[in-house]
């Protein structure tokens, strides 16, 4: 699932004191991950204080203000716009302990900064934006999964992280259980208890959501979409897709063109 439509700004900060942000209305999502220190935002008149490993997500239209810091802090900021079918609206503004080990790994993949006024060659800018888009999309999917399932079991979190990291490969319960180092039977039991879905159902749901996004592109054929998601047998891919969306891939692709 592709969430980010446009990246407006990305920066990685490590400062002795973060500066004050004056009150203003923002036309984009403002997402901050705090690695070190403490930070207080005032959003539509309500104060929110972040501590280490927290995040804050301000939706477009928010009246945003940030108090000046009094101690060293380390944090990352993303400003971005989303597509109309926006799943982020269900997330809380303050996300406590949002920097999980998997999100921390994603956050540290790209150490540089970007904004729409960056003066670089076009090819370099396109490459930079593509890298950050992909990283940010993965981060947002991680946040949505944690929010959707309210998962507490670390084994299930590890299973979901493994599935999301390998979503374009053929996946099975056997492979997932081996990756998280517990038995197949126990993996199946705790995954169903935490998510309400079997491992196979979760894998297919994630793959089908990505497939639907891919079908909106005229440049990707139906068979290439199936192959990109680890389905070598197109007929099987088509059956899974139809079961999930109650319509064939071909019909969905044609409807998205209109």
Output the keywords.
10 strands, six-stranded antiparallel β-sheet, 2 domains, four-stranded antiparallel β-sheet, Arc Repressor Mutant, subunit A, 258 residues, alpha+beta, Jelly Rolls, globular, single chain
Integer-rounded radius of gyration: 20 Å
The SSE string, one letter per element, is EEEEEEEEEHEHHHHHHHH
Tell me the CATH superfamily of the largest domain: Jelly Rolls
Coarse morphology: globular
Rounded average pLDDT: 87
| Number of beta-strand segments | 10
The class by helix and strand makeup works out as: alpha+beta
Largest beta sheet, briefly? 6 strands, antiparallel
Low-confidence stretches: none
Number of domains: 2
Which percent band covers the strand fraction?
A: 15-25%
Termini gap? 20 Å
CATH-level-2 architecture of the largest domain: Sandwich
Number of helices: 9
Q: How are the strands ordered across the major sheet?
A: 9-6-3-8-1-10
């Amino acid at each position: 699932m592709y969430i980010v439509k446009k990246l407006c700004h990305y920066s990685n900060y490590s400062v002795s004191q973060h500066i004050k942000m004056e009150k203003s209305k923002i036309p984009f999502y403002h997402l901050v991950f705090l690695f070190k220190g403490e930070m207080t935002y005032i959003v539509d008149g309500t104060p929110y204080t972040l501590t280490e490993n927290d995040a804050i997500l301000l939706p477009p239209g928010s009246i945003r203000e940030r108090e000046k810091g009094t101690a060293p802090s380390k944090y990352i900021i993303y400003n971005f716009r989303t597509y109309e079918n926006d799943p982020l609206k269900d997330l809380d503004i303050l996300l406590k302990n949002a920097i999980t080990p998997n999100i921390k790994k994603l956050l540290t993949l790209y150490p540089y900064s970007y904004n729409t006024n960056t003066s670089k060659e076009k090819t370099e800018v396109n490459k930079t934006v593509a890298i950050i888009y992909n990283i940010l999309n993965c981060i947002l999917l991680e946040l949505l999964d944690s929010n959707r399932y309210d998962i507490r079991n670390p084994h299930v979190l590890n299973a979901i992280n493994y599935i999301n990291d390998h979503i374009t490969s053929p996946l099975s319960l056997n492979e997932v259980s081996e990756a998280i180092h517990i038995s197949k039977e126990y993996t199946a039991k705790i995954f169903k208890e935490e998510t309400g879905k079997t491992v196979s159902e979760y894998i297919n749901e994630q793959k089908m959501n990505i497939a639907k996004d891919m079908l909106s592109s005229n440049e990707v054929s139906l068979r290439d979409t199936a192959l990109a998601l680890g389905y070598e047998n197109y007929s099987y891919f088509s059956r899974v897709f139809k079961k999930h969306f109650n319509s064939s891939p071909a019909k969905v692709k044609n409807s998205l063109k209109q």
